[in-house]
Automatic annotation (TrEMBL):
GO process terms (BP): adaptive immune response; B cell differentiation; chromatin organization; T cell differentiation in thymus; V(D)J recombination
Domain V(D)J recombination-activating protein 1 ZnC2 as annotated: residue spans: 178-240
Organism: Melanotaenia splendida splendida (eastern rainbowfish)
One of the record's GO molecular function terms: sequence-specific DNA binding
A Pfam family per the record: RAG1_RNase_H
The name this protein goes by in its record: Recombination activation protein 1
Signal peptide residue numbers: none
Domain V(D)J recombination-activating protein 1 pre-RNase H residue range list: 1-40
Length: 260
């Protein structure tokens, strides 16, 4: 019953790169890299974003019955670099001047679904995740400046807000006792200790914890089980990079303010 419109991920990326063709060729010329020598070794960094768009219901009715919320998944080409044959270092030939602008953000998928509906979101975004995984391992050959050139893609899910990261990682919502997506801190622990926070868990570990939550191998009560899995309650479906997340950033800011 979910209505969704989307592009195939590889087709959308081809379209985005073709839009940047002039910038790429200018970048090669500015770097003094001989055009015909650079046909392979292009790396493209993609920032992915996904966020709820809030209530989009028709105010007067009359249309089809759909969930009243929408979610948009989009991406931004952050940078393109090239490693020329025989060279050891990569050279950046394009960097997005306004990486947080709406204008550089390319929509990939628009869906009528509530962002809190984990199962529905998983079902709709599943094919995107599959396409993305396939592209990580392969190269795209694309005609650029009259020559076929080979591109590899690197994906970073750094455009998600906390709610979406929790959704994608299968964690309890933001009101949970376990406040962090990357470590096992509780609210009480974070309030006591504002300095010593480290990243202690990975996507794979969250998957293992989900299995424990699902199967309850030790026949524990709900409270004991929650304590064991530290807030993992659904199956994560998109790996997120273990970089500094919003919570640790907040704690770091709070520490600085506290010093002041």
């Amino acid at each position: 019953d979910t209505i969704t419109r989307r592009f195939r991920y590889d087709v959308a990326l081809v379209s985005a790169l073709k839009d940047l063709e002039e910038d790429i060729m200018d970048g090669l010329r500015e770097r003094g890299m001989e055009d015909s020598a650079c046909t392979s070794g292009f790396s493209v960094m993609i920032k992915e974003c996904c966020d709820g768009m809030g209530d989009v219901s028709e105010k007067h009715g009359g249309g089809p019955v759909i969930p009243e919320k929408a979610v948009r998944f989009s991406f931004t080409v952050m940078s393109i670099s090239v490693q020329a044959e025989g060279e050891t270092e990569e050279v950046t030939i394009f960097r997005e001047p306004k990486p947080n602008s709406e204008l550089s953000c390319k929509p990939l998928c628009l869906m009528f679904v509530d962002e809190s509906d984990h199962e529905m979101l998983t079902a709709v975004l599943g094919p995107i995740v599959a396409e993305r995984n396939a592209m990580k391992e392969s190269r795209l050959i694309l005609s650029m400046g009259g020559l076929p050139r080979s591109f590899r893609f690197h994906f970073r899910g750094t455009g998600y807000d906390e709610k979406m990261v929790r959704e994608m990682e299968g964690l309890e919502a933001s009101g949970s006792t376990y406040i962090c997506t990357l470590c096992d801190s509780t609210r009480a622990e974070a309030a006591q200790n504002m300095v010593l926070h480290s990243i202690t868990r990975s996507h794979d570990e969250n998957l293992e914890r989900y299995e424990i939550w699902r199967t309850n191998p030790f026949f524990e009560s709900v409270d004991e089980l929650r304590d064991r899995v530290k807030g993992v309650s659904a199956k994560p479906f998109l790996e997120t990079q273990p970089t500094l997340d919003a919570l640790h950033c907040d704690i770091g800011n709070a520490t600085e303010f506290y010093k002041i």
